[in-house]
Amino acid sequence: MEKYEFNVEAEQNGMRIDKFLKENTELTRTYIQKLIEEEHILVNDNKTKSNYKLKTGEIVKLTIPDAVDLEAKPEDIPLDVVYEDSDVIVVNKPKGLVVHPGSGNPDHTLVNALLFHCKDLSGINGVLRPGIVHRIDKDTTGLLVACKNDKAHLAIAEQLQDKTCYRKYYALVHGVIPHEHGTIEAPIGRDKKNRQNMTVTDENSRDAVTHFKVVERFKNYTFIECRLETGRTHQIRVHMEFIKHPIVGDYKYSIRKTLDTNGQMLHAYELSFIHPSTKERVTFNAPLPQYFLDILEQIRKEENE
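User: That's the sequence. What structure does it adopt?
Assistant: Structure tokens below.
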């Protein structure tokens, strides 16, 4: 366990604490915010928030906890590996696979498969989420990057925070979207009526931005491409429901079950980031899975009959 103490000088008066610590340490803002949430960062011995503005003379105490041994167990689960080197592994996640262990899913997850395949993963996200920098939902298919060491983890996390890690999705939504493209900018937070759901709200929420464009229109559906500017939980699903075009097969955010899809029609098809070691941008693609292609072909066929 490492401990640090900083005095706030006059020229730092009014500076956000996360920015202050980023400038005075080698930690990323994402990791600093995580430490603040876990109360490992105190101001005058009091807990604080990431947006707290410091005052001259205050004392900031920082504790970096020791790494904890991994508790998730390796499992021999097949992986569709798109790319792999000593820093990162990019996989094409199938439908139905949970990303990391948690309540109701103690094992048989992507993390268990990664531990068997890679042996070593970054430990920053704790014992149950080693290597995991971002997630996609259980029934969402497509690309996800995991990190094999803390250097890579911090680098990718910083890009996600700075919006330089690009993620594109394909989705099939209910209804016909009349315009060619659009941007949904609406904050997302926990639904007070159902804590397992997210919703567009101004209370205890975080900014969320989703860009979309139409790929193909049908009589009752629209096939679209979405680009995430932020990465909130269930973001695309919540945003599309918010504009009254919920994703087909999304039983959490759409009550209309017009097609038998066994989960939401959402696929993460492109992932692009700056490689932690080479510092060059790398871009990966994953084609639409067969179930998605079959549903699209079914719709086309029915409309042409």
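The first strand starts at residue 2 and ends at 7.
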